[in-house]
């Protein structure tokens, strides 16, 4: 069994190499370079150092993970065959080197010694050129795998692997999810390399407009306190809510409790549904913010008493989503949405059984639900154990029966009988796969739309709407109905 020695080529030319690294490179019996695109490589050739590189792997594979995978496999196989390869990487071996991480992990699993030697990191000259103290806090990010969620605008951020304009364009688009188009960014290329170092400061929108990139390029984004940037971060929002609840915060927010906030959550949820019905994306975003406000207020109130905080809310939801989607996060499969729903209910039932919960199948439906929503939930739960009508004709007969009972009921009995009629109507809606709540909301919107047309017709006459007979109003109503159907292309 051989072993693998990993060494860093440093950030610049041969003058930046430590003595130990110099001796290792010049004395290696089998030297492999991750890439020949580095200032030290020309010097190695002049010195007569023999080496092989993995540049051909980059051309062969379709993506970087596959490149790193092949490089690691080939080195590990060489060691298993009894060889002692020295593997040289740009910069420092432990800074942004995916292949080294693979070698360390899998070398241990396969019993192959992997020794990491030194190498000067590019971070030292980059920080020096930028005048940045890393103790202030910084992030080192990979331009080939950059997501907006990785960014933290409060810190110094360095993005490496921005080696050409195409990669710079992708980085720019990701940064623009947080930063304004004219936000200043700096491109540092070949930091610390004499006669090659270039430092360019540009507005973000110009980042990819010139060919200013190479294998030694780093993009720097300075920290900011701009509200335009920070207000797009979840942590900023939770901080605002905490500030509102602070002793010197907002008097209204400070006096709220879980109990006092109860009506607002439902109210905001219904306003969001109204925006959905109107297909108004801007309003939907605004109303979802109002719903989120209620969630954050409840979480902040709970955190002040030590019950839970927003992190517990997020963790519990994350755990539940993973647990209830084994066809995504586990080894199970689901062919369609109906099967997914069935699995969800099965897992939910197992969770309740595991908690030793016994009682009615109707448990878990809040009594505070609006009546129509509560009726829907109750009937859905009862239907799961077979308690439902099998044919729509049976529900029609029941509706007629309930209507007759309303007409023959005493004033004291009438409210109960009307309730029975509504409850049966919910059953009919569910039989046909229609959400009763949404159906009734749509009917309300339709009524408002048509009645406003009636009012408009009345205004054209100069008379108040209540001065017309029911027959006249009904005529306008039917006209509005016909116009609406014609607008929708219905006969």
Automatic annotation (TrEMBL):
Gene3D superfamilies: Cobalt-precorrin-4 Transmethylase, Domain 1, MazG-like. Keywords: Methyltransferase, Transferase. Residues 3-207 form the Tetrapyrrole methylase domain. The keyword Methyltransferase applies. One of its GO terms (molecular function) is methyltransferase activity. Signal peptide: none annotated. Residues 256-329 form the NTP pyrophosphohydrolase MazG-like domain. InterPro entries: 4pyrrol_Mease, 4pyrrol_Methylase_sf, 4pyrrole_Mease_sub1, MazG-like_dom, NTP-PPase_MazG-like_C, NTP-PPase_MazG-like_N, NTP_PyrPHydrolase_MazG, Tetrapyrrole_Mease/MazG_pred. Pfam families: MazG (PF03819), TP_methylase (PF00590). PANTHER family: NUCLEOSIDE TRIPHOSPHATE PYROPHOSPHOHYDROLASE. NCBIfam families: mazG (TIGR00444), PRK09562.1 (NF007113). This is Tetrapyrrole methylase family protein/MazG family protein. It comes from Melghirimyces profundicolus.
């Amino acid at each position: 069994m051989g072993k693998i020695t990993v060494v860093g080529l440093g950030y610049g030319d041969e003058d930046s190499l430590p003595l130990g690294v110099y001796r290792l490179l010049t004395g290696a019996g089998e030297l492999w370079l991750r890439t020949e695109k580095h200032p030290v490589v020309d010097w190695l050739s002049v010195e007569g150092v023999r080496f092989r590189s993995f540049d051909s792997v980059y051309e062969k594979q379709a993506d970087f993970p596959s490149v790193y995978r092949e490089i690691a496999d080939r080195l590990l196989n060489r060691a298993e065959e009894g060889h002692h390869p020295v593997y040289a990487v740009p910069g420092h071996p432990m800074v942004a080197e995916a292949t080294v991480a693979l070698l360390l992990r899998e070398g241990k699993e396969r019993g192959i010694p992997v020794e990491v030697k030194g190498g000067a990191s590019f971070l030292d000259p980059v920080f020096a050129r930028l005048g940045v103290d890393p103790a202030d806090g910084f992030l080192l990010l990979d331009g080939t795998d950059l997501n907006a969620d990785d960014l933290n605008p409060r810190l110094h951020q360095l993005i490496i692997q921005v080696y050409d304009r195409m990669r710079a364009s992708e980085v720019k688009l990701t940064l623009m999810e947080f930063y304004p188009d004219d936000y200043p960014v700096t491109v540092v290329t070949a930091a610390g390399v004499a006669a090659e170092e270039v430092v360019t400061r540009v507005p973000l929108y110009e980042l990819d407009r010139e060919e200013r990139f190479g294998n030694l390029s780093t993009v720097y984004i300075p920290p900011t306190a701009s509200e335009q940037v920070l207000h797009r971060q979840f942590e900023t929002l939770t901080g605002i809510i905490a500030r509102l609840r602070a002793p010197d915060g907002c008097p209204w927010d400070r006096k709220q409790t879980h109990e006092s906030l109860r009506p607002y959550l439902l109210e905001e949820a219904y306003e969001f549904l109204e925006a959905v019905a109107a297909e108004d994306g801007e309003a939907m975003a605004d109303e979802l913010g109002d719903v989120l406000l209620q969630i954050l207020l409840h979480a902040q109130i709970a955190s002040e008493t030590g019950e839970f905080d927003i992190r517990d809310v997020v963790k519990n939801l994350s755990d539940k989503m993973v647990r209830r989607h084994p066809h995504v996060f586990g080894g199970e499969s689901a062919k369609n949405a109906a099967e997914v729903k069935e699995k969800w209910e099965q897992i939910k039932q197992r969770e309740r059984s595991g908690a030793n919960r016994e009682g009615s199948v109707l448990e878990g439906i809040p009594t505070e639900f609006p009546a129509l929503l509560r009726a829907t939930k109750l009937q859905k739960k009862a239907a799961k154990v077979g308690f439902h009508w099998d044919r729509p004709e049976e529900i029609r007969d029941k509706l007629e029966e309930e209507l007759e009972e309303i007409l023959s009921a005493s004033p004291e009995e009438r409210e109960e009988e009307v309730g029975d009629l509504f409850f049966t109507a919910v059953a009919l809606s569910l039989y046909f796969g229609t959400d009763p709540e949404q159906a009734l909301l749509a009917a309300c919107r339709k009524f408002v739309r048509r009645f406003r047309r009636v009012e408009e017709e009345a205004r054209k006459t100069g008379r108040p709407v209540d001065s017309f007979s029911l027959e006249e109003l009904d005529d306008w109503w039917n006209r509005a109905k016909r116009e609406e159907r014609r607008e929708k292309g219905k006969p």
